Hints:
- By secondary structure, this protein is an all-alpha fold.
- The longest helix is centred in the middle third of the chain and has 29 residues, at 14-42.
- The protein has one domain (13-76).
- It is built from 2 helices and no strands.
- Helix 1 runs antiparallel to helix 2 (49-76).
- The chain has helices at 14-42, 49-76.
Amino acid sequence: MGVYPYGMGKPRDDKDAAQDLARDLADIAGQLASLKGEANAYLRDPNYGSLRLRLEMAHSVVEAATIEARRRVRLNG
């Protein structure tokens, strides 16, 4: 049984960390999708177009990161 400094316990392995990240990213993607839906429903003024676009871009980026994290978990599983 190994002893780890400062009572930190066993270090996490990469697979566990990737699984946690994939789960957290999926939650964030869901929150962004909700915000995007609200923005599209309520912010119809053209002045808010850049906000809607940035929400769309952020949602796309987080979804891509989620897919990549899940792929890494699958490959390293």
